[in-house]
Design goal:
Elements lengths: L1 H6 L1 H21 L12 E7 L5 H16 L5 E9 L2 E8 L7 H14 L11 E3 L8 E6 L7 H16 L4 E7 L4 E7 L1 H7 L3 H11 L4 E6 L4 E5 L7 H5 L2 E3 L6 E3 H4 E7 L6 E4 L2 E10 L5 H17 L6 E7 H31 L1 H25 L5 H13 L2 H15 L4 H32 L2 H36 L8 H4 L4 H16 L1 H8 L1 H10 L14 E7 L6 H15 L5 E8 L20 E8 L2 H18 L4 E6 L10 E6 L3 H16 L4 E6 L2 E11 L1 H6 L4 H12 L2 E8 L2 E9 L7 H5 L2 E2 L5 E2 L4 E15 L2 E10 L5 H14 L9 E6 H13 L2 H16 L2 H25 L5 H27 L6 H32 L4 H35 L14
Helix pairs in contact: 2-12, 3-4, 11-12, 11-13, 11-32, 12-14, 12-16, 13-16, 13-32, 14-15, 14-16, 14-32, 15-16, 15-29, 15-31, 18-32, 19-33, 20-30, 29-30, 30-31, 30-33, 31-32, 31-33, 32-33
Length: 1024
Amino acid sequence: MIRYLFQHGRFQALLIALLVVSGLAAISSLPRSEDPRITNRHAIVSTALPGASAERVEVQVSEKIEQRLKSQAAVKHISSISRPGLSVITIELKDEVTQAAPIWSRMRDLLSDVRPQLPSNASAPFLDEERGYAYTRIIALSSPNESTPTATLNRYGKELQNRLRNISGVELVHFFGLSDEEIRVTVDLDKASQAGISLTQIQAAIAGADAKVAAGTLTNQHSQMQIEVSGAFDSVARIGAIVLSSEQDASQYQLADLAKIERTMATPVKEIALIDGQPGIYLAIRMLPKLRIDKFSDTINTVISQFESDLPDQIALQTIFDQRGYTDERLGDLLGNIALGFVLILAVLLVTLGFKAALIVGTALPLTVLFTLVSMHMYGLPIHQMSVTGLVVALGIMVDNAIVITDAVQRLRQQGETAFAAVQKAVQHFWLPLLGSTLTTILAFAPIVLMPGPSGEFVGGIALSVIFALIGSYLISHSLVAVFAGQFIKNDARSGLFYNGIHLPALSRRFSATLELSLKRPLLTICIVFILPVAGFIGAGKLTEQFFPPSDRDMFHIEVHFAPQYSIAATQQAVTKMDQHIRQYPGIEKLDWMIGTNFPSFYYNMLQRNRGANNYAQALVKVTDFKRANQLITQLQQDLDKSFPNAQTLVRKLEQGPPFNAPIELRIYGPNLDTLSELGQQLRTQLIAHQAITHTRPTLLSGSPKLWLQTDEAALNHAGLRLTDMATQLQQQFNGTVVGSIIDNTETVPVRVRVADSARDDMNALYATQISAAQPLLIESFANAELRPSRGSIARRDGERVNVIEAYLITGVLPQTVLNDVSATLAASDFVLPHGYRLEIGGESQKRNEAVSKLLGQVGIIVVLLITVLVISFNSFTTTGLILINALQAVMLGLLSVFIGGYPFGFTVIIGLLGLMGLAINAAIVILSELDASNASTDKTKIVAAVMTCSRHISSTTITTVGGFLPLILAGGGFWPPFAVAIAGGTVLTTLLSFYFVPAAYLLLAERKRGRKVSPSYSTEESI
């Protein structure tokens, strides 16, 4: 193959053309997005039970649904929050699940099965698995001067939704803040009572008048005709004309005589969207996977522009969030890093190898990048920040093989070999060692690829693109690069920087002298070499832990919790004041709110856990840049806490990694709610005393006010009613009953019957309420109301009651540091859990442990494979052990680099250390291969000569590796610098130590093999 490629230049050109065309085609067709698409393993089941307390919701709804769903083997955790009138259950699937759709379908079937076991007035459980991942675009419709009715705004929103759904590539379009329309029949109970018509009669009359039912079919031998009775609801006037008959005097009335009938918005609203401080609606659009976001965004822009031209002046349309801008910026920065790394590497090669050799090695970079892109296309790996970062990581690595081959060819040509002979000898000598080093580096990155769950899906693209680059580097260096080196590097005796690169004779002599000195006492040399790795081991114990660093983004979010009794209207009033206060800060470009539920996900790991919470609001804040965001987060947290003491405000940075509710979570499990509440309060007292903790929050909430009607049951029975009849009538009057509907084009508008707002807004209205019996009865005549607190929410996790104490920290403080302090404080205090109760640590710590266990879960298999590759390459267990010791040294040196750099230890550092092990093994293999090739054995002269021979290309590969990672270090931020420092710093230190450790260990092993001790002296005659 090498001979044919060497002798046929046209075949070389065709191979290059194939790579270029295939690579360019891959670039144009590969999907593009900001972040990797993570399998959605979370779903939320919402079930309403109007009027029920949190305790009833827990027992009658949450527990029954949990029991049915937890039987599924794919379920990892089931958590529930039972609030008054609402159950919200969160389902989390196991990390091993990659195809979630069939599981969600099965769970919908289970929810249908459990429906008959729920109370009759409970709504059907609704499973929503579509809101767990970031939307591609969030659009807002609003009326800046509030001149447009909400119903009109809704209709324009639905029209836009229909247009967007018709676009190819749109996965879904969700509404947020959309108000429901209804035909409201507000009954005047005084008039109805005077007419002798009860509310129940009115409801029955309306339901009986909506003739949307089939009336049979006329069929004969020639035709068939359906029959339908006219009179189905089609307008407000039609409903007002319904005839009501009095049971007292047989007189008749029209419904309009006794009730006000209007088409209006349902109250109270379930959720409210505030755009620039004014009510509106959001439309959240998500793109299908495997698409290019730039082309998709262009199509969306075209449709939005056409729709915007049709909008009246009173309605404003604006983009709240567009993922394309962040994708272009992030990928642009990474491509800039690749270009910078390419320039740095090429400059290093020009200095170390000379002009011709540098150009030949330099061709390996674009060719390997093209090969990587083709591999990504064939595998289905999209272009996103992780896969492109993998290319940045691979920059310095992908030229290692090319440097070794080119340097070997150049050296052989200078020794008088012919061009083809030099190529053939270089390839024959290095194909197996470089194959071993390439495979070991691939195996070092393999655990990242094999790691299941969201962490593996998020960072797996780095390892995949590095692996593709390594494969391409090996193939290209042993084919095209080797041939180019033989053809263009001449047998030229000329020397100088231009021809052979930089040569420093004085430095070479000193380096050779230190090698000679180290081989005099190899055991002492090994002990000295171990000083730095031991220092790295000690420094590792002092590293602070930040397993998932925050995102460097010009956005953050604000969460606001009010007291449980807050209505959604009260929350809106308070949030409006907070909105005006926040806007005074300079640098804020956008501030938009969602009240009653979470804001549409604009980041990949945001949780949607506050459905139906009237006392909750969340804001998206966009500022000029991420530095201003970091400043504002701290300032706003302090200011909002002082200015709005009635609210618990959390100003939160966007976090990387798997989602968690709070940085620190302490979960107390136990059966009794009062005991759980008391224990939770004790923990909160301990936590809030820490100076770095800004807020604590329990999931077991109390204090929600509730009216209990103490009824004279005997008097009620005498009137012909039972307690359930009374409760049902009150429910119908205050919350209303849907008794029909109007079909308006493709929309169904329900008809609801209830009393006026003024008849249900306070206790006086309650006392004045009439219920129907043999004769109308006032509530105050046989019942007294007592106001008592009730549970605001009850939390459960995996079938057990739990009170989760969430602790939120000052920006920039590492969670593990605070958790260590809290754990020490609790251990020293008198906090003791009663029998039957237990404490569990959650939050960032739990996610860290889960991610590490998943990452290390495949390490055993990988280590065996790695040892197998090394043993096959060297046919020696002792040599394999030497290489592995060198790899462990590299890990310690990488940790030392992180410690010196002042970075915390985290998930990205672990990934970097795995890659560093591969690079360290690569350097050791090259040195050992040269020692074996020269049959050095115990000959110290040959050992020194072999190390000096390979020192240039090892130094070159080390410098190019550092050059490849330098852009990531210079880019700043909290995510990539620790990763890059671990590899770059560790590579430099490992290379320096390998020059002394590997020869010394090799000499000891060789002498042991020959059965004699190390020579005590080393004469100068043996030196080079």
